[in-house]
Amino acid sequence: MGRFFVPRVKKNFFSLLLLSAIFSTIIVAQLGRAADFSPSPEPVAEVEITVLPNPMDRGAPGRVVISGLRPEAPVKGSFDGKAIFFFPHRGELMGLFGADVMIKIGDHPLKVTWGPGPGEQRSLSVTVKDKSYGVRDIKVPQSQVDLSPDDLERTKIEREATIKALGTQSPDKLWSGAFIEPVNGRINSSFGRQTRLNGIMNPRPHAGADYLVPEGTPVKAPADGKVILTGNHFFAGNSVYIDHGQGLISMFFHLSRIDALEGQDIKKGDILGLVGKTGRVTGAHLHYGLYINGARIDPPVFRQMTDTINSDEFTNLPSKSKL
Ligand SMILES: [Zn+2]
Q1: What is the 189 CA–ligand 1 centroid distance (Å)?
Q2: Given this model, what pLDDT does residue 70 score?
Q3: ∠77-248-206 over CA atoms, to 5°?
Q4: In angstroms, what is the span from residue 291 Cα to ligand 1's centroid?
Q5: pLDDT tens digits, residue range 102-111?
Q6: Which of 92, 149, 245, 301 could share a disulfide with 174, CB 3.0–4.6 Å?
Q7: Chain-wide mean pLDDT for the chain?
Protein backbone atom coordinates (compact mmCIF):
# COMPACT_ATOMS: atom_id res chain seq x y z
CA MET A 1 0.00 0.00 0.00
CA GLY A 2 2.82 2.35 1.01
CA ARG A 3 4.27 1.89 -2.43
CA PHE A 4 1.08 3.33 -4.00
CA PHE A 5 0.27 5.80 -1.26
CA VAL A 6 3.30 7.97 -1.78
CA PRO A 7 2.92 8.38 -5.55
CA ARG A 8 -0.83 9.09 -5.08
CA VAL A 9 -0.08 11.91 -2.66
CA LYS A 10 2.49 13.20 -5.10
CA LYS A 11 -0.03 12.94 -7.90
CA ASN A 12 -2.70 14.75 -5.82
CA PHE A 13 -0.16 17.34 -4.80
CA PHE A 14 0.74 18.06 -8.41
CA SER A 15 -2.94 18.10 -9.37
CA LEU A 16 -3.60 20.67 -6.64
CA LEU A 17 -0.62 22.69 -7.78
CA LEU A 18 -1.87 22.59 -11.35
CA LEU A 19 -5.42 23.49 -10.31
CA SER A 20 -4.28 26.37 -8.14
CA ALA A 21 -2.09 27.62 -10.97
CA ILE A 22 -5.10 27.53 -13.33
CA PHE A 23 -7.32 29.30 -10.80
CA SER A 24 -4.66 31.94 -10.08
CA THR A 25 -4.35 32.57 -13.80
CA ILE A 26 -8.12 32.96 -14.08
CA ILE A 27 -8.24 35.29 -11.07
CA VAL A 28 -5.34 37.37 -12.39
CA ALA A 29 -6.99 37.46 -15.84
CA GLN A 30 -10.28 38.57 -14.25
CA LEU A 31 -8.48 41.22 -12.23
CA GLY A 32 -6.68 42.33 -15.38
CA ARG A 33 -10.00 42.50 -17.19
CA ALA A 34 -11.53 44.45 -14.32
CA ALA A 35 -8.58 46.84 -14.48
CA ASP A 36 -8.97 47.27 -18.23
CA PHE A 37 -12.68 47.92 -18.25
CA SER A 38 -13.37 49.67 -14.95
CA PRO A 39 -13.96 53.44 -15.16
CA SER A 40 -10.56 55.11 -15.11
CA PRO A 41 -11.19 57.52 -12.21
CA GLU A 42 -11.56 54.67 -9.71
CA PRO A 43 -8.73 54.80 -7.26
CA VAL A 44 -6.30 51.86 -7.39
CA ALA A 45 -5.33 52.39 -3.76
CA GLU A 46 -5.86 54.91 -1.05
CA VAL A 47 -5.59 58.37 -2.59
CA GLU A 48 -2.82 60.50 -1.11
CA ILE A 49 -2.36 64.17 -1.95
CA THR A 50 0.91 65.94 -1.24
CA VAL A 51 1.57 69.67 -1.64
CA LEU A 52 5.11 70.99 -1.87
CA PRO A 53 6.23 73.36 -0.54
CA ASN A 54 3.76 74.15 2.21
CA PRO A 55 4.11 76.79 3.57
CA MET A 56 5.32 78.61 0.47
CA ASP A 57 6.52 82.15 -0.37
CA ARG A 58 4.45 84.60 -2.36
CA GLY A 59 5.84 84.51 -5.92
CA ALA A 60 6.87 80.85 -5.57
CA PRO A 61 5.74 77.87 -7.66
CA GLY A 62 4.27 74.79 -6.00
CA ARG A 63 3.31 71.26 -6.97
CA VAL A 64 0.58 68.83 -6.02
CA VAL A 65 1.28 65.12 -6.24
CA ILE A 66 -1.55 62.58 -6.19
CA SER A 67 -0.85 58.90 -5.66
CA GLY A 68 -3.42 56.12 -5.73
CA LEU A 69 -5.24 57.22 -8.89
CA ARG A 70 -4.70 55.81 -12.36
CA PRO A 71 -2.37 58.03 -14.44
CA GLU A 72 -5.13 58.61 -17.00
CA ALA A 73 -7.70 59.54 -14.33
CA PRO A 74 -9.55 62.78 -15.13
CA VAL A 75 -8.50 65.00 -12.25
CA LYS A 76 -9.21 68.70 -11.83
CA GLY A 77 -7.71 71.08 -9.35
CA SER A 78 -7.60 74.70 -8.33
CA PHE A 79 -5.52 76.91 -6.10
CA ASP A 80 -6.81 80.27 -4.97
CA GLY A 81 -9.53 79.91 -7.65
CA LYS A 82 -6.99 79.34 -10.46
CA ALA A 83 -6.97 76.06 -12.41
CA ILE A 84 -4.42 73.30 -11.79
CA PHE A 85 -3.81 70.81 -14.63
CA PHE A 86 -2.37 67.36 -13.95
CA PHE A 87 0.09 65.17 -15.86
CA PRO A 88 1.49 61.68 -15.19
CA HIS A 89 4.85 61.75 -13.42
CA ARG A 90 6.64 58.56 -12.25
CA GLY A 91 3.43 56.60 -11.71
CA GLU A 92 1.75 59.49 -9.90
CA LEU A 93 -0.16 62.56 -11.02
CA MET A 94 1.44 65.98 -10.70
CA GLY A 95 0.00 69.47 -11.07
CA LEU A 96 1.76 72.82 -10.90
CA PHE A 97 0.45 76.02 -9.39
CA GLY A 98 1.78 79.40 -8.35
CA ALA A 99 1.32 81.78 -5.44
CA ASP A 100 1.06 85.06 -7.32
CA VAL A 101 3.59 87.69 -6.24
CA MET A 102 0.68 89.88 -5.01
CA ILE A 103 -1.40 87.09 -3.41
CA LYS A 104 -2.88 87.77 0.03
CA ILE A 105 -0.61 86.45 2.77
CA GLY A 106 -2.21 83.59 4.73
CA ASP A 107 -4.08 80.34 4.03
CA HIS A 108 -5.51 79.58 0.59
CA PRO A 109 -7.65 76.61 -0.48
CA LEU A 110 -6.25 74.01 -2.87
CA LYS A 111 -8.98 71.73 -4.25
CA VAL A 112 -8.67 68.44 -6.12
CA THR A 113 -11.62 66.65 -7.74
CA TRP A 114 -11.75 63.29 -9.49
CA GLY A 115 -14.30 60.75 -10.63
CA PRO A 116 -17.49 60.84 -12.69
CA GLY A 117 -20.33 63.27 -11.98
CA PRO A 118 -19.68 65.43 -8.94
CA GLY A 119 -16.87 63.00 -8.09
CA GLU A 120 -14.76 63.03 -4.99
CA GLN A 121 -13.24 66.22 -3.73
CA ARG A 122 -10.50 67.05 -1.27
CA SER A 123 -9.76 70.53 -0.06
CA LEU A 124 -6.40 71.34 1.47
CA SER A 125 -5.01 74.51 2.94
CA VAL A 126 -1.79 76.04 1.65
CA THR A 127 -0.11 78.74 3.70
CA VAL A 128 1.51 81.60 1.78
CA LYS A 129 4.20 83.54 3.64
CA ASP A 130 5.40 87.04 2.90
CA LYS A 131 8.79 87.42 1.29
CA SER A 132 10.82 90.57 1.00
CA TYR A 133 12.13 90.97 -2.55
CA GLY A 134 13.57 94.46 -2.07
CA VAL A 135 13.17 97.75 -3.90
CA ARG A 136 14.83 99.11 -7.03
CA ASP A 137 15.13 102.67 -8.34
CA ILE A 138 14.68 103.23 -12.06
CA LYS A 139 15.00 106.49 -13.98
CA VAL A 140 13.38 106.68 -17.42
CA PRO A 141 12.19 109.63 -19.57
CA GLN A 142 9.10 111.12 -17.91
CA SER A 143 7.21 110.64 -21.22
CA GLN A 144 7.40 106.86 -20.53
CA VAL A 145 5.64 107.40 -17.19
CA ASP A 146 3.07 110.09 -18.05
CA LEU A 147 1.89 108.68 -21.35
CA SER A 148 0.54 110.73 -24.23
CA PRO A 149 -3.07 109.87 -25.30
CA ASP A 150 -1.67 107.98 -28.31
CA ASP A 151 0.77 105.97 -26.20
CA LEU A 152 -1.98 105.28 -23.65
CA GLU A 153 -4.24 103.96 -26.42
CA ARG A 154 -1.36 101.83 -27.73
CA THR A 155 -0.68 100.28 -24.31
CA LYS A 156 -4.40 99.43 -23.92
CA ILE A 157 -4.40 97.48 -27.20
CA GLU A 158 -1.14 95.74 -26.26
CA ARG A 159 -2.50 94.87 -22.80
CA GLU A 160 -5.51 93.15 -24.39
CA ALA A 161 -3.19 91.02 -26.55
CA THR A 162 -0.97 90.08 -23.60
CA ILE A 163 -3.94 89.28 -21.31
CA LYS A 164 -5.31 86.97 -24.03
CA ALA A 165 -1.90 85.25 -24.39
CA LEU A 166 -1.53 84.87 -20.62
CA GLY A 167 -4.98 83.28 -20.43
CA THR A 168 -3.93 80.42 -22.74
CA GLN A 169 -4.67 77.05 -21.14
CA SER A 170 -3.68 74.29 -23.58
CA PRO A 171 -4.77 70.96 -22.11
CA ASP A 172 -1.49 69.11 -22.84
CA LYS A 173 1.83 69.55 -21.13
CA LEU A 174 4.29 70.51 -23.89
CA TRP A 175 7.51 70.73 -21.84
CA SER A 176 9.59 67.91 -20.36
CA GLY A 177 12.70 67.62 -18.22
CA ALA A 178 14.30 70.53 -16.42
CA PHE A 179 13.98 74.11 -17.67
CA ILE A 180 17.22 75.75 -18.84
CA GLU A 181 18.37 79.37 -18.39
CA PRO A 182 17.46 81.52 -21.43
CA VAL A 183 20.87 83.24 -21.18
CA ASN A 184 23.94 82.76 -19.03
CA GLY A 185 24.34 85.88 -16.98
CA ARG A 186 23.94 87.62 -13.66
CA ILE A 187 20.46 88.65 -12.53
CA ASN A 188 20.79 92.35 -11.75
CA SER A 189 17.15 92.92 -10.87
CA SER A 190 15.41 89.99 -9.30
CA PHE A 191 11.78 88.97 -9.55
CA GLY A 192 9.36 90.57 -7.08
CA ARG A 193 11.17 93.85 -6.46
CA GLN A 194 9.10 96.96 -5.90
CA THR A 195 10.04 99.61 -8.42
CA ARG A 196 10.49 103.29 -7.61
CA LEU A 197 10.00 104.83 -11.04
CA ASN A 198 11.46 108.34 -11.26
CA GLY A 199 11.04 108.57 -7.47
CA ILE A 200 7.43 107.32 -7.31
CA MET A 201 6.68 103.80 -6.01
CA ASN A 202 4.98 101.63 -8.65
CA PRO A 203 2.25 99.48 -7.04
CA ARG A 204 3.08 96.57 -9.39
CA PRO A 205 6.15 94.54 -8.39
CA HIS A 206 8.68 93.38 -10.98
CA ALA A 207 7.06 90.31 -12.57
CA GLY A 208 10.23 88.75 -13.96
CA ALA A 209 13.98 88.38 -13.57
CA ASP A 210 16.33 90.77 -15.40
CA TYR A 211 19.54 89.21 -16.72
CA LEU A 212 22.42 91.62 -17.31
CA VAL A 213 23.89 90.35 -20.58
CA PRO A 214 25.34 92.22 -23.59
CA GLU A 215 23.11 93.35 -26.43
CA GLY A 216 23.01 90.72 -29.18
CA THR A 217 23.23 87.71 -26.81
CA PRO A 218 21.01 84.90 -28.19
CA VAL A 219 17.96 84.11 -26.02
CA LYS A 220 17.14 80.39 -25.75
CA ALA A 221 13.73 78.81 -25.14
CA PRO A 222 13.87 77.37 -21.59
CA ALA A 223 11.66 74.41 -22.60
CA ASP A 224 9.50 73.04 -25.41
CA GLY A 225 6.33 74.91 -26.31
CA LYS A 226 4.54 77.02 -28.88
CA VAL A 227 4.99 80.73 -29.65
CA ILE A 228 1.63 82.39 -28.92
CA LEU A 229 2.51 86.09 -29.20
CA THR A 230 5.28 88.26 -30.63
CA GLY A 231 5.29 92.02 -31.04
CA ASN A 232 6.84 95.38 -30.30
CA HIS A 233 5.17 96.70 -27.16
CA PHE A 234 5.46 100.11 -25.51
CA PHE A 235 6.80 98.88 -22.15
CA ALA A 236 8.17 95.42 -23.02
CA GLY A 237 9.73 96.29 -26.39
CA ASN A 238 10.24 93.35 -28.75
CA SER A 239 8.58 90.45 -26.94
CA VAL A 240 8.07 86.71 -27.34
CA TYR A 241 5.49 84.68 -25.37
CA ILE A 242 5.67 80.87 -25.26
CA ASP A 243 2.90 78.50 -24.19
CA HIS A 244 4.41 75.43 -22.49
CA GLY A 245 0.97 73.88 -22.02
CA GLN A 246 -1.42 73.55 -19.07
CA GLY A 247 -1.35 77.29 -18.36
CA LEU A 248 2.45 77.66 -18.09
CA ILE A 249 3.59 80.71 -20.10
CA SER A 250 7.09 82.21 -20.42
CA MET A 251 7.93 85.63 -21.84
CA PHE A 252 11.05 87.44 -23.02
CA PHE A 253 11.18 91.24 -23.29
CA HIS A 254 13.32 94.09 -24.66
CA LEU A 255 14.82 92.01 -27.51
CA SER A 256 16.77 93.77 -30.26
CA ARG A 257 15.50 91.17 -32.73
CA ILE A 258 12.77 88.52 -32.72
CA ASP A 259 13.65 85.22 -34.41
CA ALA A 260 10.45 83.32 -33.53
CA LEU A 261 7.13 83.29 -35.37
CA GLU A 262 3.67 83.20 -33.83
CA GLY A 263 2.30 79.67 -34.03
CA GLN A 264 5.78 78.14 -34.26
CA ASP A 265 6.55 74.98 -32.29
CA ILE A 266 9.64 75.56 -30.16
CA LYS A 267 12.17 73.11 -28.77
CA LYS A 268 14.20 73.67 -25.62
CA GLY A 269 17.32 75.67 -26.58
CA ASP A 270 15.88 77.16 -29.81
CA ILE A 271 16.87 80.81 -30.35
CA LEU A 272 13.92 83.17 -29.83
CA GLY A 273 15.77 86.40 -30.59
CA LEU A 274 18.61 88.58 -29.36
CA VAL A 275 19.00 90.59 -26.15
CA GLY A 276 18.36 94.30 -26.66
CA LYS A 277 17.11 97.49 -25.01
CA THR A 278 13.73 98.06 -26.68
CA GLY A 279 10.73 99.33 -24.70
CA ARG A 280 10.98 101.07 -21.31
CA VAL A 281 14.50 100.21 -20.15
CA THR A 282 17.58 101.85 -18.71
CA GLY A 283 19.96 99.61 -20.69
CA ALA A 284 20.35 96.28 -22.50
CA HIS A 285 19.12 93.26 -20.53
CA LEU A 286 16.77 90.29 -20.84
CA HIS A 287 13.52 90.35 -18.88
CA TYR A 288 12.33 86.76 -18.35
CA GLY A 289 8.84 86.27 -16.91
CA LEU A 290 6.89 83.12 -16.03
CA TYR A 291 3.17 82.68 -15.28
CA ILE A 292 1.29 79.59 -14.11
CA ASN A 293 -2.41 80.01 -14.85
CA GLY A 294 -2.24 83.73 -14.21
CA ALA A 295 0.06 83.58 -11.17
CA ARG A 296 3.33 85.50 -11.58
CA ILE A 297 6.20 83.39 -10.27
CA ASP A 298 9.98 83.63 -9.88
CA PRO A 299 11.59 82.00 -12.99
CA PRO A 300 14.88 80.84 -11.36
CA VAL A 301 12.91 79.24 -8.49
CA PHE A 302 10.70 77.47 -11.03
CA ARG A 303 13.80 76.18 -12.88
CA GLN A 304 15.13 74.74 -9.59
CA MET A 305 11.77 73.05 -9.05
CA THR A 306 11.88 71.40 -12.49
CA ASP A 307 15.42 70.21 -11.62
CA THR A 308 14.11 68.67 -8.42
CA ILE A 309 11.07 66.93 -9.89
CA ASN A 310 13.22 65.41 -12.63
CA SER A 311 15.81 64.06 -10.19
CA ASP A 312 15.47 61.25 -7.67
CA GLU A 313 15.61 63.83 -4.91
CA PHE A 314 11.86 64.35 -5.13
CA THR A 315 10.81 60.84 -4.15
CA ASN A 316 13.23 60.84 -1.21
CA LEU A 317 12.31 64.19 0.28
CA PRO A 318 11.88 63.78 4.05
CA SER A 319 9.66 66.86 4.13
CA LYS A 320 7.13 65.28 1.75
CA SER A 321 4.27 65.94 4.13
CA LYS A 322 0.95 64.25 3.50
CA LEU A 323 -2.29 66.17 3.90
ZN1 LIG B 1 12.35 93.27 -16.01
Answers
A1: 7
A2: 83
A3: 110
A4: 14
A5: 999 999 999 9
A6: 245
A7: 86
